[in-house]
Amino acid sequence: MKDFNEEFQNGQNDFSQNDLKRILEKSEELNSKFKEEGKLRKFYKKFKLFISMLKDYISGSYTEVPWYVITVIGSTFLYVINPIDLIPDFLPFIGYVDDAAIMAICVSFVNEEIQAYEKWKIRAN
């Protein structure tokens, strides 16, 4: 069985512009998961910020973020979308533990970039 780091690395290495578009198409599904699932709920505000960053990136209005940050966020969201991952989402009580762990890794990894984006977003509005 693959571990978290291997899953995370594979997702990041294979990430493409098409994956980014797919994530944005599935943003409502992701929104529901982050808003309603207990383990993911604590990341809801970060999720909203990440989605906003991805939308601003793909629209070309915010391109100051390095591609690797986009791939980290994107591969995290692809992992969360996948119902049959390391711990299948349908398992009661533990189904989203791995998703929350991957999200926590993502948040810690991109923290500086997301803070820079927040400052930019405030100035842009």
Describe this protein with a few key phrases:
single chain, 125 residues, mainly alpha, 8 helices, 73% helix
Task: Please characterize this protein's 3D structure.
The protein is mainly α. The chain has one domain (4-124). The protein has eight helices and no strands. It has helices at 4-13, 17-25, 27-36, 38-41, 44-59, 67-81, 97-109, 111-124. Helix 1 packs across helix 6 (67-81), helix 3 packs antiparallel against helix 5 and helix 6 (67-81) packs antiparallel against helix 7. The longest helix is centred in the middle third of the chain and has 16 residues, at 44-59.
Task: Give a short synopsis of this structure.
It is built from eight helices and no strands. It is mainly α and 125 residues long.
Q: Averaging pLDDT over every residue, what do you get?
A: 84
The count of β-strands is 0
Please give the share of residues in helix.
over 70%
Largest sheet: none
Class by SSE composition: mainly alpha
Strand coverage percent = under 5%
Q: Using only CA atoms, what is the Rg?
A: 14 Å
Poorly predicted tracts of residues: none
Number of domains: 1
What is the strand and helix layout of this fold?
Blueprint: H1 4-13, H2 17-25, H3 27-36, H4 38-41, H5 44-59, H6 67-81, H7 97-109, H8 111-124
Helix pairs in contact: 1-6, 3-5, 6-7
